[in-house]
Amino acid sequence: MGTLGFWRLAQADPEWVAAVDPDGTEHRAGDLLARANRLVHGLRELGLRPGDGFCGLVPNGADGLVLYLAALQAGWYYTPINWHLTGPEIAYILSDSEARAFFVHPRHAAEGARGAEVIAAERRFATADTAGFRPIGELTDGRPDTLPQDRTAGATMHYTSGTTGRPKGVRRPLTGLDPDDGAESMAFLPSMFGITAGRPNAHLVTSPSYHTAVTQFGGTALHMGHTLVYMDRWDAEEMLRLCERHRITNSHLVPTHFKRLLSLPARTREKYDLSSLRWMIHAAAPCPVPVKQAMLEWWGDVVYEYYAATEGGGTLATPEDWRSHPGTVGRAWPISELLVVDEAGEPVPTDASGTIYMKMMGSGFEYKGDPAKTEANRLKDFFTVGDIGYLDEDGFLYLRDRKADMIISGGANIYPAEIENELVIHPKVADVAVFGIPDEEWGEQIKAVVEPAAGIEPGPELAAELIASLEGRLARMKWPRSIDFIAEMPREPNGKLLKRKLRDPYWEGHDRAI
C-alpha cells in the first residue's frame, strides 16, 4: 500500500485541484486537507471519540467533502442527510444516529433548525452565518492545520428506508486501518470497472451526495487522485458542458439522466466534445434496453452498469457483457456472491425467478439499532433487499420485480408505507394504498388510491386537500403525483391489502421490468 488516499496525495501535491464547486470555485488539495485537519482538532475538543458520529445537511460541494474527509481520518461515522427531508424526518436521523454534532448549510437552515432541536445547542454548526447555529469557525479557527495524532479510518453511515417507512442506518464495523490505507482498500470498487488512478482524471458528481453510491464513487475517485467536479442540480446540457470543460473521464448516473440526455436535440448533443469519457457508470433503477442501446451508440463502449445495495455486494455489466446479454445487470463482483432462492430459501434452477440474495466478503453490516431487521433480511451469510430476478446459465443476473413495494422514481427509492402512514391519519381518509405506476421520464411515479371516510365526497378537491396535508411532514419527492378514489379497498379477511389488484390495471400494456 502507499500510492492512494487523499491525505497522502494532498501532502505530496498540495496544489492539485481536488474539487470544483458547482459555481466553478476550485479547491486545492492542500487547502481541503488543512480544513479537514482543523475540523478534526475542533471536534475532538468537543469530545468526539472514535466510533462517534455526526451529521451534515449540506449541498454538493467542498463543504460536505471536508466533513467526509474529517470523519474518515478520525474514526468517526459521517451521515449525510437528504436535504429534501422535513424537520421531523431530520430529527429522527439525528437522534437515531446518536449524532454528536450537526452541520447545516444556510440553504437548508429552515428544516435543519426544526430538526436540530433534538441536539444540544453547542453541537449545532452552520457553514455560514445562520441564526440558531454556531459558526463553524468557532470549531476550526485557530486550530492547527497539521495532521492530527492517532489517525484511524472512519466510515460513512447512510440511511436507507425500509418498508416499515422508518429509515435505517447501515453501519459497518470500523477497520482500525490507517486512513490512507483504508481509502486505498476502497479502490477495489472502481478497479472492477477498470478505472485507473492518478491524473488527468476527473469525476463528475451528478447526483446528491447523500446517496450511498454517489459518496462511494466520488470519494473513491478522490482517493485515487481524480478531481471531483460537483453539479448542484442536474441539467442535461450542463452535464455535457462540464464533461467537455473539465475533460471528465468518469461519473455515476441513473437511467433518468440517460432519458433526459437522449431527448436533447441532436445539434445540442453533437456540440460537445465527449472524447474524454471512459467509465460512465449507472445503477439505482432498471435501464430500458432501447435507452441503454442508444447511449452505447452515442458514447461508445464506456457505459457500465451494476446492481448493488447500501448494505454491500453486487454485480457488474461491462459494455461488452451487456451487448452479449441485453437487459442484464451483470455478474457477481469478484468479492461478492449471488444466490436466487424460492420461498423456502432453497436455490432455484437457472432462468427461474426467485428472491435475490447477495454476499460480500469481509463486509459485515447491521441496521443500526435494529438487530431484528438485520437478521430478517439474512440467509446465512447472504442478505436481500427484496428484489426478484433470475440468473442465466452464464451467471448473468436479470431483475424481474420486487417483493417489497418500493417505488423507484428518477433513481430514488421511495417507500409506500411511509406515505400511507401519513395519509391514513387524515380524518377524511378511511383507507389508503400507495404504489408506483409507469412514468416515461421517471420510471415510476407515485399513485395513491384512497377510500374516503364515510360521508366524504371523493373528487379533485379532496385529492388536493390530502396532498396539501403532507406539507412539512413528508419530503415533496414522496408526495403522490395523483390520487384516485375507491369505494372499498380490496383486503383479505386477515386485513392484508391486495395491492397488486390495485396496481395491475395501471401497468397493463407496460413491460414492468421491476
TrEMBL record:
Q: What InterPro entries does the entry give?
A: AMP-bd_C (IPR025110), AMP-bd_C_sf (IPR045851), AMP-binding_CS (IPR020845), AMP-dep_synth/lig_dom (IPR000873), ANL_N_sf (IPR042099)
| Location of the AMP-dependent synthetase/ligase domain | 7-359
Gene Ontology biological process terms from the UniProt entry: fatty acid metabolic process
Gene3D superfamilies, A to Z: 3.30.300.30, N-terminal domain of ligase-like (3.40.50.12780)
List the transmembrane segments. none
Where's the AMP-binding enzyme C-terminal domain?
A: 418-496
Q: Name one GO molecular function term.
A: medium-chain fatty acid-CoA ligase activity
Q: Which UniProt keywords apply?
A: Ligase
Q: Which domain of life is it from?
A: Bacteria
Region: Disordered; residue ranges are: 136-173
What family is reported?
Belongs to the ATP-dependent AMP-binding enzyme family.
Protein name (record): Acyl-CoA synthetase
**Organism name:** Nonomuraea cypriaca
Q: Kindly list the organism's lineage.
A: Bacteria, Bacillati, Actinomycetota, Actinomycetes, Streptosporangiales
